[in-house]
Structure formats: structure tokens, C-alpha cells
Design goal:
mainly beta; 24-stranded antiparallel beta barrel; two-stranded antiparallel ribbon; globular; disordered N terminus
């Protein structure tokens, strides 16, 4: 048995025993498990290769014990070897996450030692989170203290390292993260003092995050530059709500932070995020704007991609779910710098009206745009040290993305409903390199028709018919999906993605994948076989490259 498991078990035994006393609240144990196994076959037509082990296996299990305000848990992970598309350096078996936490019943004190996830505001200067499907986990490992001295005031302080790797156990990065955050709920504060209860809800917040990493020097032909060891970032935020209105603004700044993302320049960073929304029954409107300038923030200045990000830059574009829109040209936030804006309208046409029909019709529109920054490049030594100068918070001349989509959703009868979605994309593959066959702006139109038919009692057929048309990159695509469900246990699905417009006839391949599965309460098992296209998989504006594959896939999840 792994010595770390034995150590944690030994620590939990006396806690469980104490929980069994007649005057103490009984403890409880909960958790969940997920296993994914893939086999690989060579397929020269799609570029699928077979790794030496010929299969991949990812698994994890969470075990959590809770008694009153105390909780402790661990996550056991297994990569034998990691499935393709996951970080290949993740390997072996061991504990990748463990913690102990005490939350006072009064809510005034909350203390954690070990691993934890945390976010300040929108995450622009700190977000420790996990996205298992992407292989992203930058959990902090250290100590966190949350204080709520009076109603309306919350203070968070933390100290720790970040998870970087996994090799039969947790491996942390070299940098140290120190952070403090304060939030004031004006309404809660006034209510606590017997003041007037405002209809407008006001929340104020401020954060400071710093990281320490041993320094070094950068040598050029004319300069000897010292790398800073302590890097500080800060943010201020204001959130307002009144009846159906909501608004928020957050400003973040960061001192000079030479790193691999920005080419080791000494320019400070800034970010500004704004949102405005209005909702009432059947109607929703939102407007968002964002400018990001040199806000890469990692606990190790020399790493790239998904390693050791302290912060998270929220995406301005809508996160698509349909196959062609989500996997061919998904936009990821350009952390080096972008100016962007989006607007969304949601309207529910009343049922019984001429346009709404018997059951009503839902209409949504969304538009997002992102450009590079409005900058002037410097020259000479200034270029080596500072890189560029930003002229304004507005859009620069370089177009990154234009994303317009409209969706109509309607229930026609008790047995039939449909959604139609149209997308118009202008996508710069130089800004977000999702393809190696085309450099420039792709202009694409996508049509999606989703239907759901109730065939019999507790049985239904869901279909998707998708088509993407473009004269750039690999040309036109089509995707067809059919999923039949025998509720509440069985389902079977087939999906085919076809690049019918490729200029190379040999590349017009059917990526066919079929799966069958059973759901039994909290247990879900699916078995699939087929081809997976090489491409980009994105969640929340963060993307990972996934290689082509051909083979079986078995996925099992459960919770208790």
C-alpha cells in the first residue's frame, strides 16, 4: 500500500472514532470515481499513431470524510499511461490532492491546510482550479484562512505552491504564491448594524497577489538585466444589482514580470473587465467588454501553455457546444493582449402567440469581437526592455475573431422539438493557431439543426445535422449525430464528421464514432469505438491540442 495512503488513513482513524461518541455528530464518507481507457490502432489516413503501450488509462477517485465543521479528503490518481491529448508527463499512481479543513459553525473562521482551489473576483489575478477534461490542475498546496468577523465582510489569505506535474504523486512548481482578498457586502454590513435595507445591492472587493521565484539575469549585446524575484498584482472590483439590472467592473494591474510568454520584457500589465446585464421574465440582455495587456502571470517565469498559471483571463466569446463550432475554430483568449466586446440577447416569445406557437419559442442572438491591442512598437533598447507602448484601451488594427450566432428553439408538440443555430465566424488562425494548413483569417458559415423526437414512452431520438462552409483552410465540413435513449438506463449514439470540401480528395475522411452505455443511478458506463479527428478541445476559453486516434474507448463514472 502506498505510504501516503497509510499516513492519511492513520490520521483519519482517531477522527472517525471520536465521531462515534454519544455526544458527537456522526461522521460521513462520500466520494466519486472516474476511469477512462483508450486503445489505439494505426490509421495513416487520419495520422493516428500507436504509442508503445498501445493504450492509455486515466483514473481518479475522491474520498471525503466530514464530521460537523471538519472535513478531510484526498484524490488518488492513476495514469498508466496517460491517454493521448492529456499531459504525457503525467504518469504512475499516487495521491495528487489532499487536504484538511475546518469551518466554524458560526461561519466566522474557515481554515484549510493542504490542497485547495480558490478564485478572487473574475480570476484575472488569481484562479486555482481544475478542468480534468483538459488536464489542467493548478491547485494550490499550502494554507488558506477565511475570516468573516461580521456579516458583510470576508477576508481571505493564502500561502502556497502550485501543482505542476504528477509522477506517482504530486509535484509542485518552484514559485511561492502569497495572496489576500477582501470583500465588503454593503447591504449585509448595513443590515448587521440595523441600517436601512437598500434595494440596490453593492459589493466591493480588492485583492493582492504576489509570487516569489529565485531571480537571474538577461544578457543582451548592450544590457545586463536583472530578473525580479517578487512580482505583485492587484485588482479592484465593484458589483451592483438592482431589480433586473446588474453591472460589474474590475481593474487589475501587475508590475513588470519578464517571462517566456512576453519574451522577457519589463513592461507592466493591466486588465479591465466590464459587464452590464438586464433580465426579466422572458428577456435577457448582456453587454461585456475587456482589455488585456501583458497579463500572463505564472509562478514559474520560464514555462508556457498550461503550466502554473496563477490567474485566468475569462473568454469574451460564447462557449459553443456543437461539434463544428466548438472544435474547428474555437477562440482562446490571447493572454499577451487583446481588446474585446460582446453582446447577447435572449427573448422568450410567449406561448399561444402567432410567433410563439402553442408552447412558446425561444430566440437568442450573440455577437463577440476581439482585436489585438492599439500599440506602437518601440525601437532600440526600449524595444528590448519594454517591447511596445499601448496607445488606448480600444481595438487595435489586428482582427482576432468575429463571432455572430442566432438560435431559434421551439417545442412543436409533446413529441417533437427543435433548435436551429446559425453561426458566422471570422477567425484569425495566426492569433489562435488551431490549424497548421492555413495562416490568416478563415471566413465560415455554420448551420446546425438539432431535433428531439419522443418515439415511445420513456424513449427518445435526438439528432444533430451540422454543416460548415468555408473557402479557406480545409474547406467544408459536415457532422451528423444520432442518439437514442431508453430512459432511465440505456443509450446508444453514432456521430460522423466528414470533411467533404477538402481540396485533397484523399483527406475527405469519415470520422465515425459509435458508443453504447448504461446509466444506473450514480453509475454510468459507456463503450465506444471509432476515429477521433486531430484538433482543438476547449473549455471556458482554454484549449488543448488533441491528436488523431482510432480505437476503443471505455468510460466509467460513479459517486457515493
Amino acid at each position: 500500500m502506498n505510504w501516503k495512503i497509510m499516513l492519511l488513513s492513520a490520521a483519519l482513524v482517531p477522527i472517525v472514532a471520536l465521531g462515534q461518541g454519544p455526544e458527537r455528530e456522526a461522521g460521513s464518507v462520500s466520494g466519486n470515481l472516474q476511469m477512462l481507457w483508450q486503445s489505439y490502432s494505426e490509421d495513416a489516413l487520419i495520422g493516428a499513431i500507436v504509442p508503445p503501450e498501445k493504450s492509455g488509462f486515466n483514473a481518479f477517485g475522491n474520498l471525503i470524510y466530514q464530521q460537523g465543521g471538519f472535513s478531510a479528503g484526498m484524490r488518488y490518481e492513476s495514469y498508466l499511461n496517460a491517454v493521448l491529448g492529456f499531459p504525457g508527463r503525467f504518469k504512475g499512481n499516487g495521491i495528487g490532492y489532499r487536504y484538511a479543513r475546518y469551518a466554524d459553525p458560526s461561519g466566522k473562521v474557515d481554515f484549510t491546510v493542504g490542497n485547495f482551489y480558490e478564485q478572487f473576483g473574475s480570476g484575472m489575478i488569481l484562479r486555482a482550479y481544475e478542468e480534468r477534461a483538459l488536464g489542467i490542475d493548478n491547485a494550490l498546496d499550502g494554507v488558506r484562512l477565511i475570516l468573516r468577523p461580521i456579516e458583510g465582510i470576508e477576508i481571505k489569505a493564502l500561502y502556497g505552491n502550485q501543482r505542476l506535474d504528477f509522477d506517482s504523486g504530486l509535484i509542485n512548481g518552484p514559485g511561492i504564491v502569497r495572496a489576500v482578498d477582501g470583500t465588503i457586502d454593503i447591504n449585509g454590513l448595513l443590515a448587521n448594524r440595523g441600517g436601512y435595507e437598500w434595494k440596490t445591492k453593492i459589493n466591493l472587493g480588492a485583492s493582492f497577489v504576489s509570487k516569489f521565484q529565485t531571480g537571474g539575469t538577461i544578457t543582451t549585446d548592450t544590457l545586463l538585466l536583472t530578473l525580479p524575484e517578487n512580482i505583485g498584482a492587484w485588482s479592484y472590483r465593484l458589483d451592483l444589482q438592482r431589480e433586473g439590472w446588474s453591472a460589474g467592473i474590475e481593474y487589475s494591474g501587475k508590475i513588470n514580470d519578464p517571462n517566456a510568454d512576453n519574451g522577457y520584457i519589463y513592461r507592466p500589465g493591466e486588465a479591465l473587465l466590464f459587464n452590464l446585464g438586464y433580465t426579466r421574465r422572458g428577456l435577457g440582455i448582456s453587454v461585456n467588454a475587456k482589455t488585456i495587456d501583458n497579463m500572463s502571470f505564472r509562478s514559474d517565469r520560464d514555462v508556457l501553455l498550461f503550466d502554473l498559471p496563477i490567474n485566468y483571463i475569462p473568454a469574451i466569446t460564447q462557449q459553443h457546444t456543437y461539434n463544428l463550432a466548438a472544435t474547428l475554430y474555437p477562440y482562446a483568449t490571447v493572454i499577451s493582449g487583446e481588446s474585446s466586446a460582446s453582446a447577447e440577447l435572449f427573448y422568450n416569445i410567449p406561448k399561444g402567440s402567432r410567433l410563439g406557437g402553442k408552447y412558446g419559442t425561444t430566440l437568442s442572438l450573440n455577437f463577440a469581437a476581439a482585436n489585438g491591442l492599439d500599440t506602437t512598437h518601440l525601437s532600440g533598447e526600449d524595444e528590448l526592455v519594454y517591447g511596445y507602448e499601448r496607445n488606448s484601451w480600444g481595438f487595435g488594427p489586428s482582427k482576432f475573431v468575429r463571432d455572430f450566432n442566432v438560435q431559434v428553439s421551439r417545442k412543436v408538440s409533446k413529441e417533437f422539438k427543435f433548435k436551429y443555430t446559425y453561426y458566422n465566424l471570422q477567425f484569425n488562425t495566426l492569433a489562435t493557431p488551431v490549424t497548421t494548413t492555413f495562416k490568416g483569417i478563415v471566413y465560415a458559415d455554420i448551420h446546425v439543426l438539432e431535433t428531439q423526437i419522443r418515439t415511445r414512452k420513456r424513449q427518445s431520438l435526438r439528432t444533430e445535422f451540422q454543416a460548415l462552409f468555408t473557402e479557406q483552410d480545409k474547406g467544408d465540413w459536415a457532422t451528423v449525430l444520432a442518439e437514442y435513449t431508453w430512459s432511465p438506463h440505456w443509450f446508444v449514439s453514432v456521430v460522423d464528421q466528414y470533411n467533404f470540401g477538402n481540396s485533397n480528395p484523399e483527406a475527405r475522411v469519415h470520422y465515425l464514432f459509435g458508443a453504447v452505455g448504461r446509466i444506473d443511478g450514480p453509475h454510468r458506463l459507456s463503450i465506444g469505438y471509432g476515429k477521433r479527428r486531430e484538433g482543438i478541445f476547449c473549455i471556458g476559453g482554454v484549449c488543448r491540442a488533441v491528436p488523431a486516434s482510432n480505437g476503443f474507448e471505455v468510460n466509467f463514472t460513479t459517486s457515493f
